[in-house]
């Protein structure tokens, strides 16, 4: 198991030390090293990340501020020189909490905790692979795939439309496309649709519920190949 991780810390030496430890571990791939939470948010919006090595005290946005802005939390290991944040770490259900300076022995223990947690999560996903959990008003709501009509890109956010409501999520279309099941297809740069919810198809558009959705020329061949045509 290779875990894609990012390091988020405003202290240069702390970043270098942690990066060195990560590069020595066979199960870790450092995707990005960030000086602040804003940089980290950009990385997290562009690609899926398994693990965040996260400093707590940073200017502008703290580590906890960063976690508050994420719709879905990956595995998180907090790194700090203080122990007073342990209660807050527990509230966020972080995987581990490391006090600086980080020893190699303690580092390896933390990584093993992440790997164990990832394996358990994979088992849960295999059982519960017909739904996605979306953060809404401070809680995670289970949204069954069958209830999703389509997904629409709205800039830095995506909007997940069901028959009853809409969920606004801070992520990218690419990231969400990777999480959705095989019944979904991206038919346009701004739309992912549930193939089971198509009402009809014209030359350059299709209809889901009452929504007319454009079909890009590049995506139409795959769309037609995925349908049961007569």
Which secondary structure elements does this structure contain, and how are they paired or packed?
Blueprint: E1 3-8, H1 12-23, E2 28-34, H2 37-46, E3 51-55, H3 63-68, E4 75-80, H4 86-91, E5 96-99, H5 104-127, E6 131-136, E7 139-144, E8 148-154, E9 157-162, E10 166-169, H6 173-179, E11 184-188, E12 191-194, E13 198-201, E14 205-208, E15 211-214, H7 220-226
Parallel strand pairs: 1-2, 1-3, 3-4, 4-5
Antiparallel strand pairs: 6-7, 8-9, 8-12, 9-10, 11-12, 13-14, 14-15
Description:
The chain is α/β, with parallel strands linked by helices and 230 residues long. It folds into two domains: 125 residues, Response regulator (Rossmann fold, 3-Layer(aba) Sandwich), CATH 3.40.50.2300; 83 residues, LytTr DNA-binding domain (OB fold (Dihydrolipoamide Acetyltransferase, E2P), Beta Barrel). The chain contains seven helices and 15 strands. A five-stranded parallel beta sheet has the order 2-1-3-4-5. Strand 1, helix 1 and strand 2 form a beta-alpha-beta unit. It is elongated. The N and C termini lie far apart (44 Å). 27% of the residues are buried. The model has no long low-confidence stretch (mean pLDDT 91).
What is the end-to-end distance?
Answer: 44 Å
Number of strands: 15
Integer average pLDDT = 91
**Order of strands across the main sheet:** 2-1-3-4-5
Number of helices: 7
Q: Helix and strand succession?
A: EHEHEHEHEHEEEEEHEEEEEH
Helix content: 25-40%
User: Radius of gyration, rounded?
Assistant: 20 Å
CATH architecture of the largest domain: 3-Layer(aba) Sandwich
Sketch the major β-sheet.
5 strands, parallel
CATH topology (fold) name of the largest domain: Rossmann fold
Name of the CATH first level of the largest domain:
Alpha Beta
Uncertain runs: none
Q: What structural class results from the helix and strand content?
A: alpha/beta
């Amino acid at each position: 198991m290779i875990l894609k991780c990012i390091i988020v810390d405003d202290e240069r030496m702390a970043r270098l030390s942690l990066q060195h430890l990560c590069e020595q571990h066979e199960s870790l791939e450092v995707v990005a090293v960030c000086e602040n939470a804003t940089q980290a948010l950009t990385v997290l919006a562009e690609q899926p990340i398994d693990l965040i090595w996260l400093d707590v005290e940073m200017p502008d946005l703290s580590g906890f501020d960063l976690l508050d802005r994420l719709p879905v939390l990956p595995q998180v290991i907090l790194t700090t020189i203080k122990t007073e944040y342990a209660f807050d770490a527990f509230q966020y259900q972080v995987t581990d909490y490391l006090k600086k300076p980080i020893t190699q022995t303690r580092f390896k223990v933390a990584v093993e905790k992440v790997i164990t947690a990832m394996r358990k999560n994979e088992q849960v996903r295999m059982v519960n692979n017909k739904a996605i959990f979306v953060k809404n008003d401070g809680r995670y709501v289970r949204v069954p795939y069958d209830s999703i009509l389509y997904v629409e890109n709205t800039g830095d956010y995506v909007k997940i439309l069901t028959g009853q409501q809409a969920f606004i999520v801070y992520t990218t279309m690419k990231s969400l496309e990777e999480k959705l099941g095989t019944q979904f297809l991206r038919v346009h740069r701004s739309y992912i649709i549930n193939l089971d919810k198509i009402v009809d198809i014209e030359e350059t558009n299709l209809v889901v519920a009452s929504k007319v959705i454009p079909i890009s020329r590049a995506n139409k061949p795959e769309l037609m190949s995925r349908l049961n045509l007569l």
